[in-house]
């Protein structure tokens, strides 16, 4: 008998269905590419690492919130819950969407935008297009990448969890909860990295990663992974226990 | 196949919408699930398909709790809800990505059903009208060939010719290995189609009987003379004359009139239940 939790062929079929039916994926790509191209064309500046990563972060958490699309209205929820795939596979498809598809789509959108902007500029100035290397302007700062990933992982997981809990106005409600939870989390991390008094900035500690408190930083990495897994766990439980009418008492 | 044992369900604390329900769905029959608005027909369908969890009792599919919604169960059950949503894709794409989950899906049967419903081809399913969308999804549901197919008010939104087409496709899609449960409050749409009647009233299933047995126990009268209605437990006047239902003491063979049966059971639940003990 086929495994009832995970099967490669079933998951593959589910992913195909997921991406074929999920509304707005092409539109999202077009908007992203268009906005980046327009910004580069109008202002003549290429996005740097900070801007690009901030935009990706914002885009990812909005996308995570928008996964409540599967739970509202009721017809959509029924379709989601009754698709013959396991609850784990349905959850995993969302994780693939948020952690693999979106960063790739974002990078491709940046790439397309860069060359579109170059072409449009050449068209308007009646000159030969000056093509640069892909992602020119995005100078990746290695020391910040890990910190960025450590922020991206739990934040997106948190908004995914929010989408499974708050099926209406998911983004706003999750953001409210996020402010409260992140304040508590930062407080905890500040203490964990060896701050001697409340108010010491954990980010400044991170800059002195090698010298000041490697143990504290490692603890932060572990905590981030644990927290991400916790948010994943809650999201998965919510999907598994989800009912079509959740008003019963 | 599907078993409901001593099940109770409520939306409000201590106020059961469904109580002490025992039903067994076995392969090879069309079940008509009847009940007034708000009697819990849709809720029962959700409970049967594992979309909701009963507070008391169990709903099992092949001895596994329906609420677990295992892929094995989901590929053997298809629920056509009253409200549904079709994605903005072509029929071809829809079938390509959805049919693969149902091992017995038949493309040939699907095309036949679409032909019977006279559905024109469209670029995207969203271009169909509500009634046409319903025909499309009914065709798909039947073509999945799942052993259990549940339909919630499938004829809502269908015009008069479509209702006879619907009866035709149900007859074509039915076989001995399959059960179809059709929930409706439009009992006329099910006439001459169902094998078993499930009737929900007063928070419980007050009738769960084979149509043949109903015809054995009850006599359905259509007459122009009021005197013929003697002994009826339910009667009413219609533009065509009088209709009535009475215990079939003489063993008369009459065709079950679902609307009269429904009204008779609602009007005299205890009396009818006693007849079927």
Explain how this protein is built.
The complex is a heterodimer of chains A (about 250) and B (about 280). Chain A has helices spanning about 10-20, 25-45, 50-65, 75-80, 85-125, 140-165, 170-190, 200-205, 215-240. The relative contact order of chain A is 0.12. Chain A has one domain (about 10-240). Chain A is built from nine helices and no strands. In chain A, α2 runs parallel beside α5 and α5 (about 85-125) packs across α6. Chain A has about 250 residues and is an all-alpha fold. The mean pLDDT of chain A is about 85. Chain B is of the alpha/beta class and about 280 residues long. Chain B has two domains: about 1-200, P-loop containing nucleotide triphosphate hydrolases (Rossmann fold); about 210-275, no CATH class. Chain B has a six-stranded mixed beta sheet with strand order 6-7-8-3-9-10, sandwiched between helices. Chain B has a four-stranded antiparallel beta sheet with strand order 2-1-4-5, covered by helices on one side. A three-stranded antiparallel beta sheet of chain B has the order 11-13-12. The interface between A and B is medium-sized, with 31 and 36 residues.
Topology, pairings included?
The complex is a heterodimer of chains A (249) and B (277).
Chain A: H1 8-21, H2 25-43, H3 49-65, H4 74-82, H5 87-125, H6 142-165, H7 170-192, H8 202-207, H9 214-241
Helix pairs in contact in A: 2-5, 3-5, 3-6, 5-6, 5-9, 6-7, 6-9
Chain B: E1 2-12, E2 15-25, E3 29-35, H1 41-48, E4 56-61, E5 64-65, H2 71-74, E6 77-80, H3 91-98, H4 107-116, H5 130-143, E7 148-152, H6 160-173, E8 179-184, E9 196-201, E10 204-210, H7 211-217, E11 218-223, E12 234-238, E13 241-247, H8 258-267, H9 269-275
Parallel strand pairs in B: 3-8, 3-9, 6-7, 7-8
Antiparallel strand pairs in B: 1-2, 1-4, 4-5, 9-10, 11-13, 12-13
């Amino acid at each position: 008998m086929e495994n009832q939790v995970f099967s490669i062929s079933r998951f593959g079929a589910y992913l195909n269905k997921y991406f074929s039916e999920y509304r707005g994926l092409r539109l999202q790509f077009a908007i992203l590419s268009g906005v980046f191209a327009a910004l580069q064309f109008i202002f003549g500046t290429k996005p740097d690492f900070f801007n690009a990563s901030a935009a990706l972060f914002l885009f990812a958490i909005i996308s995570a919130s928008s996964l409540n699309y599967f739970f509202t209205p009721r017809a959509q929820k029924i379709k989601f819950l009754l698709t013959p795939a396991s609850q784990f596979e349905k959850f995993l498809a969302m994780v693939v969407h948020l952690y693999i598809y979106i960063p790739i789509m974002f990078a491709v959108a940046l790439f397309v935008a860069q060359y579109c902007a170059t072409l449009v500029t050449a068209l308007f100035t009646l000159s030969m297009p000056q093509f640069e290397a892909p992602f020119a302007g995005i100078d990746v700062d290695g020391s910040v990448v890990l910190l960025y990933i450590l922020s991206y992982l739990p934040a997106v997981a948190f908004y995914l969890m929010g989408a499974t809990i708050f099926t209406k106005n998911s983004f706003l409600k999750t953001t409210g909860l996020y402010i409260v939870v992140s304040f508590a989390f930062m407080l905890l991390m500040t203490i964990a990295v060896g701050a001697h008094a409340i108010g010491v900035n954990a980010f400044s500690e991170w800059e002195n990663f090698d010298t000041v408190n490697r143990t504290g930083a490692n603890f932060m990495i572990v905590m981030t992974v644990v927290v991400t897994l916790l948010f994943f766990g809650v999201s998965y439980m919510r999907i598994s226990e989800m009912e079509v009418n959740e008003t019963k008492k | 196949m599907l078993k409901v044992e001593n099940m109770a369900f409520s939306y409000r604390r201590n106020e059961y919408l469904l109580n002490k329900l025992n039903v067994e769905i076995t392969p090879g029959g069309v079940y008509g699930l009847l009940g007034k608005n708000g009697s819990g027909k849709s809720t029962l369908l959700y409970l049967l398909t594992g979309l909701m969890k009963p507070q008391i009792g169990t709903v099992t599919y092949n001895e596994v709790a329906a609420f677990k919604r295992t892929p094995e169960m989901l590929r053997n059950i298809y629920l056509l809800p009253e409200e549904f949503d079709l994605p903005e894709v072509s029929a071809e794409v829809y079938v390509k990505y959805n049919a693969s989950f149902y091992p017995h899906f038949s493309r040939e049967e699907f095309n036949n059903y679409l032909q019977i419903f006279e559905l024109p081809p469209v670029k995207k399913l969203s271009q169909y009208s509500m009634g046409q969308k319903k025909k499309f999804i009914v065709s798909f549901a039947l073509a999945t060939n799942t052993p259990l197919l549940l339909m919630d008010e499938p004829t809502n939104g269908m015009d008069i010719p479509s209702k006879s087409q619907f009866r035709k496709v149900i007859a074509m899609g039915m076989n001995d290995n399959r059960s179809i449960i059709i929930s409706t409050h439009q009992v006329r749409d099910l006439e001459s189609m169902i094998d078993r009647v499930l009737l929900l009233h007063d928070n419980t299933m007050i009738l769960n009987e084979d149509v043949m047995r109903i015809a054995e126990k009850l006599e359905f009268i259509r007459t122009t003379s009021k005197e013929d209605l003697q002994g009826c437990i339910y009667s009413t006047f219609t533009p065509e004359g009088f209709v009535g239902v009475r215990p079939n003491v003489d063993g008369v063979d009459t065709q079950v009139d679902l609307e009269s049966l429904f009204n008779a059971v609602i009007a005299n639940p205890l009396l009818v239940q006693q007849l079927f003990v």
